[in-house]
């Protein structure tokens, strides 16, 4: 019991660090945010910095939600704190809001800068170099997020068949992380880059462990059914 409590405290400390790091890094990068409203700046620049903050926080919160929802179901991660259904929905809603804020603010800021509505940022673009490729990864994350959120809502309403579709969250996180590390100024260098790489590698390990655990459980169930069928068959022959 004491070991589980210690593990839980350590995990919560790591979660807090992952959530605080983006705020600290963002603040060090932009300086005093109030200056963006009191000085002459290019159109949309003050909006753009808050789009970046929303995106950075979304990555951290998304990771925390996935970790706390999945880890307690994997034997090797027993002792990790678990989210109940209500907390999972709150975390998911907050993550969805932050991603929507990131996308919305970024499109608004770009539109003000270009003086034309930048709808093109929401469409796949593989023909204009590195930057737009990683913008496209972000757009893919947004598309998959809409499907995953809808599937989560249907699952919550009792339609269990949508649970597998909700697993698209893995693709959402992967594309969002690539998008952030690829073109995010705060994640190119420094500690935040390694923290985000840690979030990606830890979730990769967790998903792999969850899949392996599910395969093992299925094999055990199949083995038990075969053993039960064999025992029943021998009993009937004896009769």
UniProtKB/TrEMBL annotation:
UniProt keyword annotation of DNA repair present: no
Domain of life: Bacteria
Keywords carried by this UniProt record: Membrane, Transmembrane, Transmembrane helix
Transmembrane annotation, as ranges: 7-27, 47-68, 89-109, 129-153, 165-185, 191-212
Keyword Glycoprotein: no
Protein name as annotated: Tetrahydromethanopterin S-methyltransferase subunit D
């Amino acid at each position: 019991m004491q070991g589980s409590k210690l593990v839980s405290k350590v995990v919560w400390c790591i979660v807090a660090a992952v959530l605080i790091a983006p705020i600290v890094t963002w603040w060090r990068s932009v300086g005093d945010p109030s200056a963006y409203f009191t000085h002459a700046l290019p159109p949309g620049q003050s909006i753009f910095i808050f789009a970046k903050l929303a995106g950075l926080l979304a990555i951290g919160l998304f990771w925390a939600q996935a970790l706390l929802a999945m880890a307690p179901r994997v034997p090797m991660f027993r002792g990790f704190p678990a989210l109940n259904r209500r907390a999972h929905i709150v975390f998911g809603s907050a993550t969805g809001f932050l991603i929507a804020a990131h996308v919305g603010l970024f499109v608004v800021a770009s539109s003000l800068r270009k003086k034309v509505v930048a709808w093109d940022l929401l469409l796949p673009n593989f023909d204009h170099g590195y930057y737009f490729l990683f913008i496209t990864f972000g757009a893919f994350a947004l598309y998959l997020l809409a499907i995953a959120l809808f599937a989560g809502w249907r699952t919550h309403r009792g339609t269990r068949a949508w649970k597998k579709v909700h697993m698209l969250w893995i693709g959402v996180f992967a594309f969002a992380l690539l998008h952030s590390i690829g073109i995010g100024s705060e994640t190119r260098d420094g500690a935040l880059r390694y923290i985000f790489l840690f979030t990606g590698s830890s979730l990769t390990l967790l998903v792999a462990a969850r899949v392996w655990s599910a395969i093992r459980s299925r094999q055990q169930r199949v083995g038990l059914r075969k053993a039960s069928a064999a025992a029943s068959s021998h009993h009937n022959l004896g009769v």
